[in-house]
């Protein structure tokens, strides 16, 4: 599969079937990328070369996730998350979450209307049956400061092209992060019997500093 670079504009893209098509599908899987990431590259790996790239998207490749859950409609949500460079944008995690819920509600309403069975009092949270987190810093980036990332970005971009606000939520003890965690726990604990949750993170050193360009700084896991 050749990677198709889509617009960075916020969108919910269906990868395994046309939007609104639920034939034979009784599960919706929605993949959401992280900070400073591309909505397609996040889930893909280049099996080719730099000059002749061959991107494999595990959300879409027939022998990967679609084969494991053939009854699922797989979607990916994209939003503007770049915090450095000419296209940098400053926004909070809460605002991103609100917009994600909005597009999910719109998609759900479209499907329900198609079956003429829309329940206006339905709550999208009650429909969640599983959550998978990949390297999610619930309590901040333990063992890693955002300062080296900002310093690395400053060596390659102008000051006005660097937005540090989105990074604040990665700091340990951040008030917004703690509020989000408290809200999440208050929602998820009463639903533990109906909602399964799994968290994954890397144990090998990662060149996280390299996300801003040539600057490299290896760090071990600090995202648990």
Automatic annotation (TrEMBL):
Protein name: Uncharacterized protein
InterPro entries cross-referenced by the UniProt entry: AB_hydrolase_fold, SERAC1
SUPFAM superfamilies recorded: alpha/beta-Hydrolases
Organism listed in the record: Vermiconidia calcicola
PANTHER family recorded: DUF676 DOMAIN-CONTAINING PROTEIN (PTHR48182:SF3), PROTEIN SERAC1 (PTHR48182)
């Amino acid at each position: 599969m050749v990677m198709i670079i889509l617009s960075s504009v916020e969108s919910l893209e269906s990868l395994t079937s046309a939007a609104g098509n639920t034939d034979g599908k009784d599960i919706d899987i929605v993949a959401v990328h992280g900070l400073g990431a591309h909505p397609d590259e996040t889930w893909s790996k280049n099996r080719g070369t730099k000059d002749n790239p061959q991107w494999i998207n595990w959300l879409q490749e027939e022998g990967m996730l679609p084969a494991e859950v053939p009854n699922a409609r797989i979607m990916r949500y994209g939003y503007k998350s770049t915090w450095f460079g000419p296209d940098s944008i400053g926004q909070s995690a809460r605002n991103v979450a609100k917009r994600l819920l909005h597009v999910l509600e719109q998609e759900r309403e479209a499907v329900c209307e198609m079956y003429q069975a829309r329940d206006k009092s339905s709550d999208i949270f009650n429909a969640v049956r599983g959550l998978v987190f990949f390297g999610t810093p619930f309590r901040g980036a333990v063992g890693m400061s955002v300062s080296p990332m900002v310093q690395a970005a400053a060596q390659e971009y102008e000051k006005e092209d660097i937005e540090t606000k989105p990074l604040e939520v990665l700091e340990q003890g951040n008030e917004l992060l703690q509020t989000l965690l408290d809200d999440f726990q208050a929602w998820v604990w009463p639903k533990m019997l109906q909602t399964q949750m799994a968290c994954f993170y890397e144990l090998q050193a990662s060149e996280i500093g390299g996300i801003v360009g040539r600057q490299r700084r290896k760090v071990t896991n600090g995202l648990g």
